[in-house]
Amino acid sequence: MDRDSHSEDTLSTMVLENIKNKLIHAFRATGESRVNPQDSGSTVRPVSISRSYQANEELRRAQIDGAITWLRSELLEMRSQDLQLAQTLLGLNTEIQRLRRESFGGVEVEGEDQQ
To answer: pTM to 2 decimals?
Structure first.
């Protein structure tokens, strides 16, 4: 179970990093397309536009990092709930099997071991 959990962690991290890179690339392309039309008439960008672009880029990155952090926490919560549900189902299955044995006086119930 620990090995599976580690594999899921690795896979989740890889997926989230991929999403992060795609979002950064998408926002970078969007930001560049907004700035480039202003630059078409001159070769030097005004300092205020450059600073504004940098600030917007940093804000976008912070928002992306925040979104990824939220996704990561949601995935961890879902994994925790999944494990709790699995434990509950195993407990219910054990209880059902015990009740079946009691109700049939210890006689093997056909199909009991098939689950």
So the answer is: 0.46
Sign of the alpha-carbon torsion through 36, 41, 47, 48: negative
Q: Concatenate the DSSP letters of all residues of 2-57 into one string.
A: HHHHHHHHHHHHHHHHHHHHHHHHHHHHHHHHHHHHHHTT-SS--HHHHHHHHHHH
Task: Indicate the angle between helix axes 47-103 and 2-39, nearest 10 degrees.
Answer: 160
Cα 58 from Cα 63, distance rounded (Å): 9
Indicate the number of domains in the chain. Answer: 1
Domain that holds residue 70: 53-103
DSSP category for residue 114: G
- Residue 58 counted as domain residue: yes
Which pLDDT tens digit goes with each residue over 62-81? 999 999 999 999 999 999 99
Helix (H, G, I), strand (E, B) or coil at 109: coil
